[in-house]
Each structure stands twice: as structure tokens, then as C-alpha cells.
Amino acid sequence: xxxxxxxxxxxxxxxxxxxxxxxxxxxxxTARFQGGSNxxxxxxxxxxxxxxxxxxxxAMRRHVRCVLGQGMVIDPxxxxxxxxxxxxxxxPFVPNRLTISRRAHVILPIHxxxxxxxxxxxxxxxxxxxxxxxxxxxxxxxxxxxRMLDLTGDPGRLRAWIEAIHDAWAPRxxxxxxxxxxxxGAFDMCTEWxxxxxxxxxxxxxxxxxxxxxxxxxxxxxxxxxxxxxDHGTYPFVTSSNASALGAPAxxxxxxxxxxxxxxxxxxxxxxxxxxxxxxEEKGEAGDRLRDAGHEVGSTTGRPRRCGWLDVAALRYAVxxxxxxxxxxxxxxxxxxxxxxxxxxxxxxxxxxxxEIPLDDLDAAEPVYETVEGWGEDxxxxxxxxxxxxxxxxxxxxxxGWLGVPASLVSVGPxxxxxxxxxxxxxx
Length: 428
Ligand code: IMP
Prior knowledge:
The structure is a single chain. With 428 residues, the chain is an alpha/beta fold. It is 31% helix and 21% strand. It has three domains: 161 residues, 3-Layer(aba) Sandwich (Adenylosuccinate Synthetase, Chain A, domain 1), CATH 3.40.440; 92 residues, Adenylosuccinate Synthetase, subunit A, domain 2; 161 residues, Adenylosuccinate Synthetase, Chain A, domain 3. The strands form five sheets. It has a ten-stranded mixed β-sheet with strand order 9-7-5-2-10-1-11-15-19-20, with helices on both faces. β16 and β17 form a beta hairpin. The relative contact order is 0.16. It binds inosinic acid (IMP). Inosinic acid binds next to α4.
């Protein structure tokens, strides 16, 4: 039995969806443990491209049980839409194939509208996905959030709770002269959501515990990435949850000792959407080339992603923090055709060279680059390390050396099959 936490080592969009879908073949359960509809996990099946926002990427396999953990914030209308999409491909969800934690919090229309207000209040532009994520977590921490269990509870209590949430936001809307969405409309929506999702709402923590006791293989799928983690990322330019693997036990409701390994996902270069520091960003031609070759456009928002070179010093930090046991290197094919590949292996800060990114001193720090030889051969058909040109293999070996962990998977294209499985993480 293995319980693998899958986590992004960068600023999200590392390709977690593809890898969780691929590893789903060997798993009995996949679970999301934080975030909500800000995530866009893309799964490509032949000519179909499905973007999942709430459901774990294992949903695309019929035998896999899906769990939405209590650390999530859920936008029920988006979730219901997503369930319909998956059902049209995979057949109907039955309640024991999907469990939505009764303790997960609900994103209301007012949270989506309040998302834009956050930036006006502090004057700091974060560039959120405007999906209401921050305001919903704000209500959770303020002990006035609405939980999934409330959708099927006493209607009088539900109405009063929704009104209290609206009252709490009212002064901020008034200050900015913005009209509030009505509490009555939200109550009607919640009642409908309760009817549609009620059969799936349950004790996600217990479901996971029972599966683990039975010996089922479990994948815990993180959304966003370590550098967007609210405690460990580039604060305040972060999301509102623990997006690193550190959030997995709390958000899934399982003991930390249940997790048997941590798979860290990194692209072969770096991208970021939204505002905030990105020291290895390439604003010129090199960045444009990565964006075009990697089709780097946000799968939730459609925003073009900022692109730059691999930041090994940031990866070292993420590997240490998450306790990564092996890495999956994605989009290696995007580097094909580059004569030279730049990689930042450290940071120069006040005359010293640091091996880890100095997150709280980035204004004064400068990346230190090394150059690695590129390759020209098409690698999108590689299925084994031996299929890769020697220079691509050397790039992977250098990365393993810099990070001190092995690469278990190398992705060379968007399809499930376009993957070199060096060592299956479920067979370690
Ligand atoms: P929020 O999560 O919508 O509050 O956005 C906070 C920050 O996280 C913004 O910079 C977003 O662009 C970023 N972000 C949120 N979700 C994702 C994701 O799934 N991939 C990449 N960036 C994300």
C-alpha cells in the first residue's frame, strides 16, 4: 500500500493533472486536499481535453474513487458542471465513487465578487483567478464560513448563516460603492446545490482512513504549487491555502504518518501566472519561445503565463520543505531545439552565493546561471530513458544531482502515453 502526495514544486501549472491521471491506473483513490476552482488540471485523452477544477484527476478513470477533502473550498455550480462533463465520458458518478467532505467550505457568489475587492483594500495587486478563493478562506478563518454539510441541514439556519455572511461583507462593498449580490438568491442556490450534491456529501477523512487500512493505493493531489503556499510561498503573492504537501494531511484529514512518499512535479523551465516575484523570468524572445512552444496559457483564466528558466535553487527549497522522495520532470519536449539551456543554480545575495532561494530577500538577490547543452532531436515519442538523446539524459542527470533526488517520471508530451516511467512511484 502506498499513499503518495503529489505536489507542485513551482508556482503551479507543473502538469500535476496529467501525472495524477497517469498514476490513477495504479491507485484506488485520488483525493484533492486544498484549493478549489482556481485550479485547472488538464487531462488529455485522445482528441478530448478535459480541464478539472475540483475533481481529482483520477476522476477520468472509472475504477478510481474520488475524494474532495475538507481543506478545499468548493464552488458547487462549477463542480456540478464538471461532474456532468466527466459523467458524459465515464458514465454516472455513484455516491461511493465520489465523496465530498461535509467540512469543505462553500464558495458563494458574494465570495467571487469580493475577490476583486481584496486588491482594492490593500493596494497590492495579486492577480488572483477571481474565483472567490481568498474570500471563502477568509470566512473560514473568521469562523463564519458555510460548509457543505450546511447545504443539506436546517433551512432556517442556512438562511440565517448566509445573511450573516452577507452582513459581514456589506461594509467593504459599501466602502467601494459596489452593489452586493442578494442573500435570498444565494439561499435558493444553496438549496438547489444541496439537492444535487447531498448524496455525495460525507466524511471524507473516514473514507480515506478506511481505504488506507484496507491497503488501497492513494494519491493525494495538490493544486497550485509550493511557491504559492500561503505559509511557505512568495507571500503576499500566494493563494490562500497550504498548497505544498504540508497541507496534505490536514486538508485530506489523515495522519501525517500515513503518507508514504512525496512526488514533486516540476516543469523543465518555470512559469507563473499573476503578480509577484519571478527572478528567472525571461521577458524577451526566450520567454516568448517557451510560451509558444509550451502553449503557456492559463487553463482556468486563459491568461498568458510568464515564462523563464528553471530555478534549481527554488526547487531545492521545495524539495527540502516537502520532503520530496522523487521528482516528475514535465514538458521536457518544450526545450527541444534550444542550442543552450540556462538554469539558475543559486542566488547571489550581498556577496554570498546561496544554494536555496532567499524568499524574503528577493529584491536584493540575483540568480546565478549555468548553461547546459541542448538537443535538437524530437523526443515526443520517447518511452524509455534510452530513447532520449544523450544531452537530454545529461540534463535530467544534472537536475537529479543538483536536487539530490531521482526523477521517477519524465513527461515528453500532453498525452498519457507520452511519458518515460523511470521508476513507478507505486512500486518503490
Ligand atoms: P487565487 O488562488 O485565485 O486567490 O490566486 C492567488 C494567486 O495564485 C494568483 O497569482 C494566481 O494566479 C495564482 N494561482 C491560483 N491558482 C493557480 C493555479 O492553479 N495555477 C497557477 N497559479 C494559480
